[in-house]
Fold:
Amino acid sequence: MRLIVLAGMLFAAQGTNAQTIERPDNLPPGFETLIERGASRCGSEDTADFSAGGFTTPYDLNDDGINDYIVNSDYFRCYPAGHLIYGGTAGTHYSFFVSQEDGTFDEVMHLAAHNMQVVYFGEKPAFVFAHHGGSCGYSGSTGCVSAMFWSNFENKFIGKGY
Structure:
């Protein structure tokens, strides 16, 4: 009887238009929300593809000895449609995840930018973003910049810009 029920469940699952999600290997705890939020932007026939190259780990922002993650949404796409899950004329979406004491990662900043550069002041990385002018109250072609760095004192990103 169990075999018949299991076979029926498998047949029913194959008959639905369930969306497929291609996840990178070894996702850190707390990233599932980002994956699910992005996948919801794809159609039911599409596969939400989150390429591993979009996760970078060279920055220990909060000086706890654990690499934190900057997620570049250029690596998130819906296939076969091929469109970006996030992004557009305002640029690429960048999400910054910082490690927490319980082993998870919290998304502490999310913004759109056309480009990001890392500039070091001593050993401290600062993130400089080139934005769409609309982000700063100008026309889109004007553009603007912002610079942010992690403050351990305030436990958040601080800086100047849009």
